[in-house]
Specification:
Blueprint (H helix, E strand, L loop, with lengths): L11 E6 L5 H10 L3 E4 H9 L2 H11 L11 H8 L3 H28 L7 E4 L3 H4 L7 E6 L2 H10 L5 H4 L6 H7 L2 E4 L4 H15 L2
Parallel strand pairs: 1-3, 1-4, 2-3, 4-5
Helix pairs in contact: 1-10, 2-5, 3-5
């Protein structure tokens, strides 16, 4: 049986951006515009709730990471972000599983009778994880550093610099992405830009 032509498939788009750039707002806007959307962070939360991943974490990091049998994400973060070796190990556990989940989701969308304009996955560490190879196109949402800092602080984040140490610089994300969307204005302005972008990706 011949493979389905790429043109007949739902366009598969990876969405990324630094903290405070507005990628979650962009994901919500794209859903309003007719795209199917998935958050890789939500997938990670689901994976951390599975027995398989919980048991691997306990074996590697000790029982303190899963009190009463449930993974405490805060404790896990404290442990792995203080150790490059443990962080890389956790990424090795999670990222392949995230990739499998994304691919299965995309395959299911291709089988739907009424298909979305595009399948968009928000992946904060898209380029850092090497997952960009899975997508037909990638989109980086960027914003002025002062705007990002203000948004991050409004959400209670301690600061952009300390939380982005593991991420590529915003300019590098933009340089590697297929498309770049600047998000320094209102949600309405962002949605209009994304509407134009979606029209190019999925005419």
């Amino acid at each position: 049986m011949a493979a389905e032509p790429a043109s007949a498939r739902v366009p598969f788009v990876g969405l990324t951006g630094g903290i405070g750039a507005g990628k979650s707002e962009a994901l919500a806007a794209l859903e309003r515009l007719g795209a199917a959307t998935l958050s890789s962070d939500a997938v990670v939360h689901e994976l951390l709730a599975t027995d398989e991943v919980r048991d691997a974490l306990v074996e590697r990091l000790g029982p303190a990471v899963a009190p009463e049998g449930r993974v405490d994400r805060g404790v896990v973060a404290e442990r792995v972000f203080g150790s490059d070796e443990d962080r890389k190990w956790l990424e090795g556990v999670l990222w392949p599983r995230v990739g499998e989940r994304m691919w299965g989701w995309r395959e299911a969308l291709d089988q739907r009778e009424s298909r979305p304009r595009a399948a968009v996955v928000e992946v904060p560490l898209l380029f850092e994880s090497g997952l960009e190879q899975a997508f037909d196109a990638t989109v980086a949402v960027v914003a002025d550093e002062a705007v990002r800092r203000e948004r991050a602080e409004a959400r209670g984040h301690a600061g952009v610099a300390s939380r982005t140490a593991r991420q590529l610089a915003q300019d590098e994300k933009a340089g590697r992405a297929t498309h770049v969307v600047h998000n320094d204005g209102t949600v309405e302005e962002l949605e209009e830009k994304l509407s134009q972008l979606l029209a190019r990706i999925a005419p």
